[in-house]
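in:
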């Protein structure tokens, strides 16, 4: 696995017309967008998302998915999707941020209309895991969010893997596409603070967490998978990214 972070600048444009002409993101070789869905722009926007599952199979029919007149989701992250067909829902959650000091995301929809159309409401009646405020990660955030005082404590919280959870899909940062092999283990972290964000910088950390767990080691793991070219021991640390070119948020104070 190779993971990179990038900085993309469109110089032939008027910043007044395109405020987000500079974009920094975490991604992978040859990727034009952040497959991790972590993007900072010179417009002062931090774009972050956690994907939700779809339990309503009717959404996969021709009634909603049309090859013509729609674009791929990674392109949607570049431009406004106001002119494209589809369903969007939004709400001002400033009150939540002021009351609780954070806005969490658990791969579970918060808005009721999204929860209903995706099928999460029905699944939530069966298991608390599918309820926005009742999932294991929601409980971790509710218990520990007050511990975050700086970028270091944020890093520690987001990479924390409690021993009492059997499935790593229940932790804060996880990667579901390797669940069958490694129980959905965390592979990366990205985070920023006010000062770093003003320069479109962020902290990146690749590899499974090892606090308080042992460092992942291909020689001792029960996972059987091809890993040619990978290090045997994944005892990596974080990198505070700094760009070679001048990058900053417009009119940031």
């Amino acid at each position: 696995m190779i993971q990179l972070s990038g900085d993309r600048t469109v110089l032939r444009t008027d910043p007044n017309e395109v405020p987000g002409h500079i974009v920094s993101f975490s991604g992978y070789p040859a990727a034009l967008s952040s497959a991790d869905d972590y993007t900072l722009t010179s417009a002062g926007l931090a774009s972050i998302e956690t994907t939700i599952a779809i339990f309503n199979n009717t959404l996969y029919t021709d009634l909603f998915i049309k090859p013509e007149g729609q674009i791929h989701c990674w392109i949607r992250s570049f431009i406004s999707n106001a002119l494209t067909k589809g369903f969007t829902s939004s709400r001002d959650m400033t009150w939540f941020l002021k009351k609780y000091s954070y806005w969490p995301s658990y791969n579970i929809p918060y808005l009721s209309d999204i929860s209903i159309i995706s099928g999460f409401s029905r699944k939530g009646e069966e298991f608390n895991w599918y309820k926005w405020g009742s999932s294991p990660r929601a409980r971790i955030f509710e218990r520990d969010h007050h511990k975050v005082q700086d970028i270091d404590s944020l890093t520690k919280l987001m990479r924390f893997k409690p021993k009492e959870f059997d499935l790593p899909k229940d932790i804060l940062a996880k990667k579901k596409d390797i669940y069958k092999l490694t129980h959905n283990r965390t592979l990366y972290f990205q985070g920023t603070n006010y000062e770093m964000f003003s320069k479109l910088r962020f902290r990146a950390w690749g590899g499974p967490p090892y606090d308080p767990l042992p460092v992942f080691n291909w020689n001792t793991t029960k996972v059987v998978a091809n890993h040619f070219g990978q290090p045997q021991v994944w005892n990596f640390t974080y990198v505070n990214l700094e760009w070679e070119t001048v990058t900053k948020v417009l009119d940031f104070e």
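note: Residues 23-240 form a domain with the Penicillin V Acylase; Chain A fold (CATH 3.60.60.20).
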